[in-house]
Amino acid sequence: MSVHIRRQRATRQAAARRRLVVSLGSVLALVAALFGAVPAGSTPAAATPLVQGSVAQYGVATQLNVPVTMADGTVLRADVRTPATAGTTTPATGSFPVLLTQTPYGRGGVEAELSWFTQRGYITVSADVRGTGTSAGSWSPWAPIEGQDGAALANWAAALPHADGKVGLYGGSYAGINQIMTAAAVGPNSPIKAIFPLVAGNDLYRELVTMGGIPDSQFMSFWLTYTGISHMTAPLAEALREGSTQNILDTLTLEIQHLGGVAQSNLPILTGLLGGGAQAYDGTFWQQRRPADMLASVVANGVPAFLVGGWYDLFQRGALMNYAGLQNAWAGRPVGAPMTADQPVTDRYQLLMGPWYHDPRQDPTLDLPALHLRWYDKWLKGIDTGITGAANPNPLHVKELGTNRWLDTRAYPFTGADPTRLYLDKGRTGSAPASANDGGLSTTAPTANGSEWISWTANNSPCTRSTAQWLGGFIKDPACTDSNTARETGTGSLVYTTAPMTETKVLAGPIGATLYAQSNTPETHWVVTVTDVAPDGSSVPLSSGALAGSHRAIDPAKSWYAPDGSMLMPYHPSTQATTSSVPTNQVVRYDVEVFPTFASIAPGHRIRVNVTTADTPHLSATLTQTPGLLAGIWQLKSGPANPSSVTIPLAPASAFGTACTSVCP
After folding, report:
1. What is the mean pLDDT of residues 432-456?
2. Residues 448 and 547 in one domain
3. Structural domain of residue 437, as residue ranges?
4. Residues 474, 457: Cα–Cα separation, whole Å
5. What is the dihedral of CA 142, 144, 147, 153, to 10 degrees?
6. 3-state SS of the chain: helix, strand, coil percent to 5?
7. Angle between the 111-118 and 368-381 helix axes, to the nearest 10 degrees?
8. Within-domain flag for 6
9. What DSSP element (H or E) covers 239?
10. Which of 276, 232, 11 is nearest to 104 (CA)?
11. 388 and 440: one domain?
12. Same domain, 216 and 145
């Protein structure tokens, strides 16, 4: 009887562990989908067979939970997968390059995609970032020590049995940024020979944490909460699958320690950001985590990089800035400067920019595994896969929104797109009859001064593309993502529209909006959205930008200007020292950075600028900003005295005539 009871108890315990694994797996799948890891058990899209390059011919020999000791004694944990003789788990003869990824979302989540590369002749290593998973230590998002850890892991991986000493870095989102940090920290003549940062940022403060000093409460609140959850659930799920009671208890003990570290890290970031504390400004914390400042070191260390970004991604701005920064560093120019039309470029640094949100794998036409493989085969195995050289002379590859064209070009800002200043003008055009003002937008400056009222609102319609964009694009409704009309009415919205285009134009690059306004409050919030208006009146959002009035100060040395002196891409320092209250009852200038796009505007279509005072749920005021916004009623000015305008790069369709054939879908 006692044996029977013990068997029943063991059966119930095993079933409970299976139920818990399923529940934890559901949470992990959501977090992994949102932030760049393929959920455990899923398989990457089948790669297109290559004329040249690695093919699937190996099995996989796996070592789990391998300890790796860092310089300060902290032990990280990694899984190692080695090519094996086909049909066995015995390591194959010969030596192989290594692909390394570092993730805070649980290293088990990348098992399927890394095994795909192992079958093609790569040793793969997945490591938990310190303070996450089963790695010891304390976690702080993108802490500088992660770059040092990455360098140590790369050196360790290069010396693994069967390794040939060459290492490539792999991963997207957080892991993509981690690649840049590692490639910058590793030093010259390192084992790292190539990186492939997928949807990686350039400036976390300006792209992820805030937009123009207004907190990204939608993304940051969600992300900081769920990273804390994933840090515990991922390793616990792995321990439960393994089934050892002692392993489960050891893992639980470690994760309780991690939970305390996450609380000490994530909670101050969130409360500081939303409360108007130090994290709400571009201070030391965010400056230490700025990939832009690491790009020169990546180039100096001789590490080639293939970047992938999306026009609707969280890092819509950052992908292009990373490309320009790497090319500038290679050419000996300032990293943050706009590229010039005639500067030399190199195929060592490439960008594929497509119509994607935060997970380009949602596009069934994009074969990311094959693209990765071509890059790694070139730099780690010396195979000519046509991804560099004469077959690919233009290293900037972009999808033109609104058409089926994939194009190759070289410089950012885009050569051939002339910055065109369009002036806001009071008066009804008939193109937006439901709007409060229905104003005009023209290259001709208005001759009469105008003033239009707009009121601050804490919330406006969430039915917009920005809601989907800053949730990674994983929850979206075409009725909202493809239409801006819900935002174009009411007292908190003003609309300015051009006459119909007489020929196709390409709107290509960063956009600068210069607004002159008078307010009755010591704080203002401005959101500028640029749309493509079709003859039937539909208004498709192309890009947006925002600015808190208190963050209006400009750093001229870091801003980009059009030839006529108008603002093309303003740079706001956004430090505590440079922010200041808005003078009330005076006309004040605000320069708003609107993130870049690349879109075809067809004949008969119009360009529209929609000015609002909120972007719900993407942006929300800090606790310190909110009192200065209450009861805000502002006057947006136009005319010769206060020429509010937007500077938009426009080009004829023929300006971009080189079709992308080497790497584009």
Report:
1. 96
2. yes
3. 418-654
4. 27
5. -100
6. 30, 25, 45
7. 50
8. no
9. helix 217-242
10. 232
11. no
12. yes
